[in-house]
Amino acid sequence: MDAIYTAAATATHGRDGRAVSSDGTLDLALGVPVEMGGNGQGTNPEQLFAAGYAACFGSALGVVGRAAKVDVSDAAVTAEVGIGKEGEGFALAVTLRVELPDGLDEETGRKLVEQAHQVCPYSNATRGNIPVDLVIE
Question: Which residue, of 33, 40, 103, 135, is most buried by count of CB atoms within 10 Å of its CB?
Fold first, then answer.
């Protein structure tokens, strides 16, 4: 692969620190979620992954929609990223909830979502590594 763009960010102090992108656009306090024993003061890697995946999947849906001449510009994608213990370590699982525009028939919508799942870089990176469920709403 020849990279068109490369993003870089540095995190210090792990889940209880700070994440800053190389261009300074992203500068966030990180915090361990209350559910994992932290104080919840700051964002966490799962939220960042969810935001990135949702945005990327929405873009992929737009690409396949335009190719099919179907307007999906009003679609909304919510990524739910769960983390839990698996064996000696931890694992992730994702649910992508895709809210399609009003008036789009279910069959066409499902085909577009499945096509987007084939072209989305996040989907390609996670395929075979973590479970990703597609839910059309």
Answer: 33
Q: Domain 1-43 is in which class?
A: mainly beta
Domains of the chain, by residue range, sit at 1-43, 45-136
Question: Which tokens in the block code for residue 19?
Answer: 């994440």
Q: Which of 102, 105, 53 is nearest to 73 (CA)?
A: 102
- The pLDDT tens digits of the residues spanning 84-101 come to 999 999 999 999 999 999
Q: Give the closest residue to 115 by CA, choosing from 61, 78, 50.
A: 61
CATH of 45-136, one of 3.30.300.20, 2.40.30.170, 1.10.260.40, 3.40.920.10: 3.30.300.20
What are 105-136's pLDDT values in tens digits? 999 999 999 999 999 999 999 999 999 999 99
Task: Categorize the per-residue pLDDT at 58 as very low, low, confident or very high, splitting at 50, 70 and 90.
Answer: very high
Mutual orientation of helices 45-67 and 106-119 as an angle, nearest 10°? 120
